[in-house]
Description:
Layout: H1 6-15, E1 23-25, H2 29-35, H3 42-47, E2 58-60, H4 61-73, H5 81-90, H6 101-110, H7 121-134
Antiparallel strand pairs: 1-2
Helix pairs in contact: 1-4
Amino acid sequence: MYSLAFAAIKRICDIYDWDGKGVLDLFFLGDVIYALGLNITKKICVGLGQQEERDKKFAKFDDVVKLVTEAVNTKDNSGTPNDYIELCKLYDKNENGTMMLAELENILSNLGKACITFVDDTTLTITIFLFVRRS
């Protein structure tokens, strides 16, 4: 699916290696994956060994490369369009299928998508649909 350079993964692991021991605290596994520009679900990260607390479990950098590769190759690793629709529903305060434009821009920017200035409600609706269908 994705072509990830081993050197890039190890370089990011090195950033999280506070003691210089060549191991990664698996508490930071999701952070390493996110730093690579990937949006892998937390469920998959936890399934691969991500810990809820620091200093519980460690892995060598080569093992982290294998974990990241496995996460990337996992089917449905970044959610489905329905997950994004459910996310938008959280911000539908009036329960009428709409949300504040500022909240949508915040969601899109946090997901790494470019924000678009919307002209009217029609453009907004179409853009949300295209975003959800392409993700």
